[in-house]
Amino acid sequence: MKGLKLGMAPKPRASDSSRPHHFPSGKRSLSDDFDFTSKLLAAARLDCLACPWLMASSLQESAAMSEPHQNSLQGMAIMSGAMLILPTMDAIAKYMATFEAMSPGQVTFYRFFFQIACTLPILFGLFGLKALSAKRPWMNLLRGVLHGAASLLFFVAVKYMPLADVFAIYFVEPFMLTALSALFLGDKVGWRRWTAIVVGFGGAMIVIQPSYEIFGLKALLPVACAFLFSLYLFLNRAIGEADSPLTMQTMAGIGGTVFMAAALLVGSSSGNADFSVSLPSSGLGLILLLALGSISGYAHMLVVRAFRLAPLSLLAPFQYFEIISATVLGYALFNDFPSFSKWIGIFIIVASGLFIIWRERLQAQSLKSS
């Protein structure tokens, strides 16, 4: 699921890797928020639970990368690779639903379950019970619930819709997050960015319209997913520095697993096919589910490495490489390819998102220079 973008999490002490400081107190400049935002951009869809050995040190180091002579080209290349890999996770979910007859709800549960099963022993071995000692446990668990619900909606969407369509519509998330920041946190958003938000939503409507005629209300699932994930990122800022990134991600992973277990129980009891309970029907299916639980960790390692090499604000636009990868995978595996009108909508969404990144970067640089 989905993308990186104008996310929010604490400016790392041992920094959060899923996207900016105390809430609502504590003075911070827009440039601080932008640096903070950029870090989280890269990890919005990357679950740090999958690579706990990086959480303790690598992310902390990634926050201190302001040297002027970084290997930006290598960082951009690595970031591009990570963004091209991430849609594989969603292609697996679509493959499991299409060819393995596994419900999206079950796939989402396995995604979180295998992450927890693989990482909790390592976390406890390295950090003991500190991994679960949260100062704001319920808020962290709520993050996990929101992440689980967003992932579920995304996987349901890719079951019925082409991958590229889902990704394109999902990329309204940065617009929602920018709007939430302005409305509830008092972030200054000028008329240019508000215009870009409106135009970006217009691009999403161009993609949604033909999909809506075919898939009905299911075409709106990526929008709901984007909204839930923007709330998930919004809570990163609400929690601020109260809890370490390691604790935040561990608790969020547990929250997501518990939520999906409950959702499966309720959904399957009601007879909803998208929540039917099943085991992998083949060895390949089991392998793919295990891969689903680890791909985000591998991609996250690439992102952390990219952050060490290139300025964070420089990496943000590379999120849109996900659309390229999703289009290729959709065509190769499922014979799906966006129509010309959808490409117009995708172009508008991407252009609006890049404009917002550019404007925020300009404003942050202006504040720093002053």
From TrEMBL:
Transmembrane segments: 109-129, 141-161, 167-186, 193-209, 215-234, 246-266, 286-307, 314-334, 340-358
Cellular-component GO terms for this entry: membrane
InterPro entries: EamA_dom, EmrE-like
All residue ranges annotated as the EamA domain in the record: 75-208, 220-357
Protein name, as recorded: Putative permease
Gene3D superfamilies, per database record: 1.10.3730.20
Lineage: Bacteria, Pseudomonadati, Pseudomonadota, Alphaproteobacteria, Hyphomicrobiales
Record key words, sorted: Membrane, Transmembrane, Transmembrane helix
Annotated region described as Disordered, given as residue ranges: 1-28
